[in-house]
Specification:
By secondary structure, the protein is mainly α. It has two domains: about 210 residues, Rossmann fold (3-Layer(aba) Sandwich); about 90 residues, Tyrosyl-Transfer RNA Synthetase (Orthogonal Bundle), CATH 1.10.240.10. About 50% of the residues lie in helices and about 5% in strands. The chain has 13 helices and five strands. The strands form two sheets. Strands 1-2-3 form a three-stranded parallel β-sheet. The chain has a two-stranded parallel ribbon with strand order 4-5. Strand 4, helix 8 and strand 5 form a beta-alpha-beta unit. Helix 3 packs across helix 12, helix 9 packs antiparallel against helix 12 and helix 10 crosses helix 12. The radius of gyration is 21 Å and the shape is globular. The structure holds tryptophanyl-5'AMP. The site of tryptophanyl-5'AMP (TYM) has 26 residues, from strand 1, helix 1 and helix 7.
Length: about 325
C-alpha cells in the first residue's frame, strides 16, 4: 500500500509532560505529511533512559505520548505510530552506527554538553552516543524528511554525515534524510516563559516557564499572564524584547496572523491585554486536544492495539534495511 511513497520519520521522548514547544515545533506539523508520505511517528523511550527515569512515570508517559499523537490528529490507520523499544532493530542499528560515528563529532553536540551539565552525576555513555541511536531511528526506514524543531538540527546533520559515511564505504545503503524545520515565526523554537532567551523544555523544573499541552484552561491563562516581558509597553518584536517576541510568535502560530498584523492589532494596548489574548487563544486551541486525550488515555487496550499494529508495520520495513546492512558489513545471515 505504501511502497511508492517517500518516508517521513520523527520522534518524541516520553521524558516529561509535553509542552507547546513540542506541539508547535513538531507534533502539530506531523499530520500534514500523512497523505503524501508514509509516516512513522515514534515514542522514543530508549532515548529517554539516557537521563534517569522513574519506571512507572516512563511507562505512563509512553502511553500518554502515544495518546497525544492521536489526539493531535494522527490517525493510526494513516500513520505508523509505535514505541521505539518494541522494535529491537533500533538498538541493533544504533550499535552498528556507533562504530561509524566519531568521538570528535559526538563531543561537539550541544545537547550532550547541555545535558551533561544538567546531569553531572550521570554522564553515561548512552547520553554521549545518543545521536547515533537517533540516526538509526531515521535511517532504518529510509527516511527522506524529518520534521523537528530547530534544536534537533545538529542531530540531523550528524545523521546525514553518518549515512553518507556508511554509503561511501559500502555503496548506497541509506537514504540521506533532510530536516523539515518550520520557520522561526512558525514554532521552530518556542522559548521559556520565565527566561525567554532559553528554549521551552519539558524537563524545566520551573512550572511557570512551560505551558503543557495538557494544562487546564485556567493554568494556561495564568502562566501566560505571568510570562516575563520587558519594562517597555509596546507590543513589538525586537532585540531586548525577547519575552514579547516569543509571545508574538506563539500567538502567530495559533492564529496564523503575521507579526505585522499582530503588532497592528495590539497597537496602543498594554502587555496585560496582550498576554490575556495569547493565553485564551492558546487555551482554546488546545481544548479539543485535551478532550480527545482524556478519552483515549482511559482506553489502554486501544492504545496497546495501536502499539502492536505500529510495531509490526515498523518491523517489516526495518527488517529490510537491517538485512541489507548486515550483508554489507559482513555479518552472516542464517537462512530460517
Ligand atoms: P524532544 O523529545 O526533546 O522533542 C520533541 C520534538 O519537539 C521539538 N521541540 C521544540 N520545538 C520548538 N520549540 C521548543 N521549545 C521545542 N522543544 C522541543 C523538538 O525539536 C522535537 O522535534 N532527539 C529528539 C527525539 C528523537 C528524534 C528521533 C526526532 C529521537 N529520535 C528521530 C526525530 C527523528 C528529542 O529529544 O526530541
Amino acid at each position: 500500500m505504501f511502497n511508492d511513497k517517500k518516508v517521513v520519520f520523527s520522534g518524541v521522548q516520553p521524558s516529561g509532560n509535553l509542552t507547546i514547544g513540542n506541539y508547535l515545533g513538531a507534533i502539530r506539523n506531523f499530520s500534514a505529511f500523512s497523505e503524501e508520505y508514509h509516516c512513522y511517528y515514534c515514542v522514543v523511550d530508549e532515548h529517554a533512559i539516557t537521563v534517569r527515569q522513574v519506571p512507572a512515570d516512563l511507562r505512563r508517559r509512553t502511553y500518554e505520548t502515544l495518546a497525544l499523537y492521536i489526539a493531535c490528529g494522527l490517525d493510526p490507520e494513516k500513520n505508523t505510530l509505535f514505541v521505539q523499544s518494541h522494535v529491537p532493530a533500533h538498538a541493533e542499528l544504533g550499535w552498528i552506527l556507533d562504530c561509524y560515528t566519531m568521538f570528535g563529532e559526538l563531543s561537539r553536540m550541544t545537547q550532550f554538553k547541555d545535558k551533561s551539565a544538567k546531569n553531572a552525576d550521570n554522564i553515561n555513555a548512552g547520553l554521549f552516543t545518543y545521536p547515533a541511536l537517533m540516526a538509526a531511528d531515521i535511517l532504518l526506514y529510509q527516511t527522506e524528511l524529518v520534521p523537528v524543531g530547530v534544536d534537533q538540527k545538529q542531530h540531523l546533520e550528524i545523521a546525514r554525515d553518518i549515512a553518507e559515511r556508511f554509503n561511501g564505504i559500502y555503496g548506497e545503503t541509506f537514504v540521506v534524510p533532510e530536516p523539515y524545520i518550520p520557520p522561526t515565526t512558525g514554532g521552530a523554537k518556542i522559548m521559556s516563559l520565565a527566561e525567554p532567551t532559553k528554549k521551552m523544555s519539558k524537563s524545566d523544573e520551573n512550572e511557570n516557564a512551560v505551558v503543557r499541552i495538557l494544562d487546564s484552561r485556567d493554568t494556561i491563562i495564568r502562566k501566560f499572564k505571568r510570562a516575563v516581558t520587558d519594562s517597555g509597553s509596546e507590543i513589538r518584536c525586537g532585540e531586548g524584547k525577547e519575552g514579547i517576541t516569543n509571545l508574538i510568535g506563539i500567538y502567530s502560530c495559533f492564529t496564523g496572523k503575521t507579526t505585522e498584523e499582530i503588532e497592528r492589532e495590539f497597537d496602543g494596548k498594554g502587555y496585560g491585554d496582550f498576554k490575556l489574548a495569547v493565553g485564551e487563544t492558546c487555551a482554546d486551541a488546545l481544548t479539543p486536544v485535551r478532550e480527545e486525550f482524556d478519552r483515549l488515555i482511559a482506553d489502554k487496550a486501544y492504545l496497546e492495539s495501536v502499539m502492536v499494529q505500529g510495531a509490526e508495520a515498523a518491523y517489516k520495513s526495518a527488517r529490510k534495511t537491517m538485512s541489507k546492512v548486515r550483508r554489507k558489513i559482513g555479518f552472516i545471515e542464517l537462512k530460517k
